[in-house]
Structure formats: structure tokens, C-alpha cells
User: Which sequence fits this backbone?
């Protein structure tokens, strides 16, 4: 009996050690993943110093198209399209929508606060340039797409970043934003989603329905919001 107790204690100690190591590993991996978004944010902030951004803008080709107004939402649409097709994803549709709404809300507050605090003028003379709301929205959507499909289909997971990058580039060529606006917006978008998926807020808030075909398709932007629900 004593031997059995000793064995059980030994197994418990080993399990606790592995659990602690796994927890530390998860935290370390999370911290490492934030190097990219934090670098984007810091680079964007530093590029606001002096006239570097003006020089970059002078050498940027200019366009006049509105595709970026819609392209920012495509990664969010991809999430629900891939769900409907049947690609394996990390969370339920409800949790995906929950994390998407929280991420957009938090990032929107951050962007709105920075815009009204810095009051940097856009290249075209309009107000509130820093950071780019379109780019933030696009990268929030793209990062959620990545989080949901990174373990099952990396090609689908990374495709959203291509569209988000295209959105940021169009903000530059359309003369709506400076490069630091776009870089910082991308960083905020990625960082916000990573934090939401790491902290998993409102875990107890779930939605159970006998109808397995229910789906949500949110369309969220810096100054707009709509939510389509399909049964």
C-alpha cells in the first residue's frame, strides 16, 4: 500500500512538472510571437519622427481606387466560408464570432484613442491619420483567420495576411495614410487578436443550438458595423 501511495505521489509530481513546463512553454511561445507586432508598432512610432515618412510618400506610386474599403473585410468572410465548406477550424462559429467582435472592439478603441491623441494629418490633408483603421481591421480579420486554421491548413491561414497587406498598401497608394500609420495598424491588429486568443475572455459565454447550420457573418470596420445571421 505504501509503495502504491509513493508511486501515485511520484506520478503526480511528474505530471505537475510537465504541466508547469507546458504552461511556461506556452507563455514563452506567446511572448516570442509578439516580437513581430511590437516591432511593427515601434517602427511605426519611430517613423513619425522627422521627415522620413514624407520622403517615403514622395516615392510611393499613387492610385485612386476604393478597393481597400472592401478588401479589409475579406479575411473575415473567408473564416465563415471555410467553416461552411467544412474545413477543420479551432473554435466553434460562435466563439470565432465572439473573439472577432472583442478583437475589433478593443482594437477600434485603441485606434480611435491614438487618432484623437496624436492628431497627425494625413498625406491628403485630412485629419486623424495615425494609425490606419482600415489596416487594423484587415489584420484583425487576417489574424483570426490564421488562428483558426493554422493547425489544419496553413495555406488558408496565411492567405488573409496577403489581403490585409494589400489593404495597407492601397492605403498608402491612395494617399490616405503614411507608412507608419499602416505599420502600426498592422501591429495593433495582430497583437490584439493574439491577446484575445491567449486570454480567451468570456469562456463561459457559449451558444448552443439544435440547428447546426447557424452561422454569423460580421462586417466590422473602424466606423461601421453590421452582423448577418444565417439559419
Assistant:
Amino acid at each position: 500500500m505504501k509503495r502504491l501511495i509513493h508511486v501515485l505521489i511520484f506520478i503526480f509530481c511528474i505530471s505537475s512538472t510537465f504541466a508547469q513546463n507546458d504552461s511556461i512553454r506556452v507563455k514563452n511561445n506567446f511572448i516570442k510571437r509578439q516580437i513581430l507586432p511590437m516591432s511593427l508598432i515601434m517602427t511605426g512610432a519611430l517613423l513619425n519622427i522627422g521627415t522620413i515618412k514624407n520622403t517615403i510618400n514622395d516615392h510611393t506610386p499613387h492610385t485612386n481606387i476604393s478597393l481597400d474599403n472592401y478588401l479589409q473585410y475579406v479575411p473575415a468572410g473567408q473564416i465563415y466560408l471555410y467553416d461552411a465548406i467544412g474545413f477543420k477550424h479551432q473554435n466553434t462559429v460562435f466563439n470565432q464570432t465572439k473573439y472577432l467582435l472583442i478583437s475589433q472592439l478593443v482594437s477600434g478603441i485603441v485606434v480611435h484613442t491614438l487618432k484623437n491623441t496624436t492628431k497627425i494629418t494625413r498625406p491628403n490633408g485630412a485629419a486623424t491619420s495615425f494609425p490606419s483603421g482600415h489596416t487594423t481591421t484587415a489584420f484583425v480579420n487576417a489574424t483570426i483567420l490564421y488562428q483558426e486554421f493554422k493547425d489544419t491548413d496553413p495555406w488558408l491561414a496565411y492567405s488573409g495576411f496577403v489581403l490585409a497587406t494589400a489593404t495597407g498598401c492601397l492605403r498608402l497608394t491612395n494617399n490616405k495614410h503614411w507608412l507608419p500609420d499602416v505599420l502600426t495598424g498592422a501591429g495593433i491588429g495582430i497583437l490584439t487578436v493574439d491577446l484575445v486568443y491567449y486570454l480567451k475572455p468570456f469562456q463561459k459565454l457559449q451558444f448552443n443550438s439544435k440547428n447546426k447550420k447557424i452561422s454569423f457573418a460580421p462586417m466590422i470596420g473602424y466606423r461601421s458595423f453590421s452582423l448577418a445571421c444565417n439559419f
The two ends are 58 Å apart (CA to CA). The beta strands are 215-220, 225-230. The longest strand covers residues 215-220.
